[in-house]
Amino acid sequence: MSTIHLHLTTTATPEQYIAGLTDFGPGRSRLFGNSADAYLKVHHKGPSQADVTEGSNGIWERLHYDWSSLDRVVLTTIDSNVRGDASGHTYTFTRRPDGATDIDVAVVRDGKNFKGRLLGFVLGTIGRRVLESAFEQSVRAIEARSSSSVKRVRPGDQASLAPRGPALAVAPRNQERRAP
Predict the structure, then answer these.
(1) Is 5 exposed, middle or buried (0-12, 13-18, 19+ CB in 10 A)?
(2) What's the pTM value of the predicted model, to 2 decimals?
(3) Is residue 22 within 8 Å of 32, Cβ to Cβ?
(4) 28-33: long-range contacts (C-beta < 8 A, 24 or more apart)?
(5) Are strands 101-109 and 2-10 parallel, antiparallel or unpaired?
(6) Phi, psi at residue 176, to the nearest 5°?
(7) What string of pLDDT tens digits covers the 180 residues of the chain?
(8) d(CA 169, CA 39)
(9) d(CA 17, CA 91)
(10) Torsion angle of C-alpha atoms 4, 108, 15, 95, degrees rounded to 10
(11) What is the CB neighbour count within 10 angstroms for residue 20?
């Protein structure tokens, strides 16, 4: 069994990262490269839990997602063609005073067959860099998604919340009136 711990600091809020992590719609692979649309199947999704099959390149796993806590998301492997029941991911979010968020991830890979054990060994040795790169890409993609979803509001417009981020109200400029 291999356990890898990863850490990144992001400008995304925990809510923004969780929204990306639990977006099981088409195009998920733009956020998470190892989740190809062809493998993606949502068996159930509720307000804070989901049961989803995802994967790519001949490797799939059915995961139970639990995001009932605002500072932690736990993905537990239910079934897989290579991973055992002890596999999964735990994302922990810590808000920083400067507005950034620390994300700590523990990735556990328990091989249930020869291919799974081999992949676990590779992950535990040279595969760490691959996981780090994939994690960094997902964080950057969620940051970009979050910043592009902020709706800018002009004076006189009704301010509202954008789907994936707060609306920014722009204060009107002081304008001098000239006499006619």
Answers:
(1) exposed
(2) 0.78
(3) no
(4) 28/54, 29/56, 30/141, 31/138, 31/141, 31/142, 31/145, 32/134, 32/138, 33/134, 33/137, 33/138
(5) antiparallel
(6) -85, 140
(7) 888 899 999 999 999 999 999 999 998 999 998 899 999 999 999 999 999 999 998 989 999 999 999 899 999 999 998 888 889 999 999 999 999 999 999 998 887 877 777 777 777 677 788 889 999 999 999 999 988 754 433 344 333 333 333 333 333 333 333 344
(8) 41
(9) 10
(10) -40
(11) 21
Which H helix or E strand runs over 104? strand 101-109
Tokens of 153: 């509001």
**Dihedral angle, C-alpha 142, 11, 19, 79, nearest 10 °:** 70
3-state secondary structure 40-74: CEEEEECCCEEEEEEEECCEEEEEEEEEEECCEEE
Give the DSSP letter string of 121-160: HHHHTTTHHHHHHHHHHHHHHHHHHHHHTPPEE-TTSPP-
